[in-house]
Design goal:
M1 Pyruvate Kinase, Domain 3; 17 helices; 3 domains; elongated; alpha/beta
Length: about 475
């Protein structure tokens, strides 16, 4: 099940992709990582999907990554017993902590944290930004606002407070229960929603305690103020353009996407571009040309992975959406412009032996036209650094840790193989060349470049580079 592309595909599971046949079809179409969205579905639903994915992994022999996406705090208005109301521009609208029926003049906002962060002149966005209110007067339990952009408002629509840091933890009581379940289930990645500050990531890392890798979703302006600190604390990042596009003007999102990708590349953190990539395919068998270009742009920018949300979770054409994404990626990666730009940009290596070996491996592999770079790793850090180099040849990762192999399914250009631990370097070399030939990365007479750490099995000790000819 080798993928003939370097950019990975993340597919969200849901009602349209919950049976064994449906999940298998998504995997065969090209999905490398399955996202479990804990905003929807029960623990039993997720456990069933997990069991199917692990069975598929065992049958195919290819490590598959599971990303558990926590919901995070959801800020919403109350209800309107008389049905949806119309807010007209220029009208006044009162938000109150007091629980009472909503109408054209008021609504309940059951979140004291929001009132604590408000000041006169603050804007509030309702229903994914469709309605904009501006605070004129406020207190600890109310806000008198003016309607800037009107529209229809109905029960429990979401509320965003741009440019304000709310006194909220990124982990609600529900998130903590979901986190415990996801870790016990065996998720490989935990995606954090509504991160506002570096402390949110540190809190989650402490709770996760190494049982899964931490994936931070970048989705609000508060995060952007501490972008580098937050990404450094995480193991990977996601450009979550849905919420990001609500709180920021649309024209700011594309350059911010590029900035985040460049930062993650420099820091050696895998980065996923998400939200509405092939949105038309929720109900249509083909995307718009603009959507195809959107996916292509993320690939040209050298993102590690691109993600499908509703397209694969609840759409009418989930398999076709994965197939389309696969075709777009492969076409871009065969383009001369991609090879000359995305693969030609290399961040400065850190002044360590491991980074020096990794940089040299790419240069040697490209100079001698090697079939692949083979990394032998325990923790996966060496392989992530090799992926950061964006070599023009595939990266074959051999690891004795199944957990590491699964996590690396999200990394650009990495084909991970799990095998028993080896104590002798000569045994690693022999097994590596056998796997390279079996997985069709190289044929008899071809050269491969191998990196490893001696003594074997010590994380972060890469200190050997070897060129080997396939027998």
């Amino acid at each position: 099940m080798r993928r003939y592309r370097s950019t990975r595909i993340v597919a969200t599971l849901g009602p349209a992709s919950k049976t064994e046949a449906q999940i298998r079809a998504l995997f065969e179409a090209g999905a490398d990582v399955f996202r479990f969205n804990f905003s929807h579905g029960t623990h039993a639903d997720h456990q069933n999907s997990h069991d199917i994915v692990r069975k598929l992994e065992e049958e195919t022999g290819r490590p598959i990554s599971i990303l558990a996406d926590l919901q995070g705090p959801k800020l919403r208005v109350g209800t309107f017993p008389g049905g949806p109301v119309l807010l007209k521009p220029g009208a006044t609208f009162r938000l109150e902590l007091r629980d009472a029926p909503g109408d054209e003049t008021r609504a309940t906002l059951p979140h004291p944290e929001i009132f604590a962060a408000l000041t006169s002149g603050t804007d509030l966005l309702l229903d994914d930004g469709k309605i904009r209110l501006r605070v004129m007067e406020c207190g600890p339990d109310f806000a008198e606002t003016g309607v800037v952009t009107g529209g229809q408002l109905s029960d429990r629509k979401g509320v965003n407070v741009p440019n304000a840091v709310l006194p909220l933890s990124a982990l609600t009581k529900k998130d903590r229960a979901d986190l415990d379940f996801a870790l016990d289930m065996g998720a490989d990645w935990i995606a954090l929603s509504f991160v506002q500050r570096p402390e949110d990531v540190a809190e989650a890392r402490k709770l996760i305690s190494g049982r899964a890798a931490v994936h931070v979703k970048l989705e609000n302006p508060a995060e952007i103020e501490h972008l580098e600190e937050i990404v450094e604390l995480a193991d990977a990042a996601m450009v979550a353009r849905g919420d990001l596009g609500v709180e920021l003007p649309p024209e700011r999102v594309p350059p911010l996407q590029k900035k985040i990708i460049r930062l993650c590349r420099r820091l050696g953190k895998p980065v996923v571009v998400a939200t509405q990539m092939l949105d038309s395919m929720v109900h249509a068998p083909a995307p718009t040309r603009a959507e195809a270009s959107d996916v292509a742009t993320a690939v040209y920018d050298s993102a590690d992975a691109v993600m499908l949300s509703a397209e694969s979770a609840a759409g009418d054409y989930p398999v076709e959406a994965v197939q389309m994404m696969d075709r777009i990626i492969r076409n871009v990666e065969s383009d001369e412009h991609y090879l000359a730009t995305a693969l030609a940009e290399h961040s400065e290596p850190e002044k360590t032996v491991s980074d020096a070996i990794t940089r040299s491996a790419r240069e040697v592999a490209e100079t001698i036209s090697a079939g692949c770079i083979i990394t032998y790793t325990t923790s996966g850090s060496t392989t992530i650094r090799a992926s950061r180099e964006r070599p023009s040849v595939p990266i074959l990762c051999i690891t004795s840790s199944l957990k590491t192999a699964r996590r690396l399914a999200i990394a650009w250009g990495v084909h991970a193989v799990h095998m028993p631990d080896q104590q002798r370097f000569s045994a690693v070399v022999q097994r590596a060349t056998e796997i390279a030939r079996a997985e069709q990365f190289a044929g008899p007479g071809d050269k491969v470049v191998i990196t490893a750490g001696v003594p074997m099995g010590t994380p972060g000790s890469t200190n050997v580079l070897r060129v080997e000819r396939i027998p």
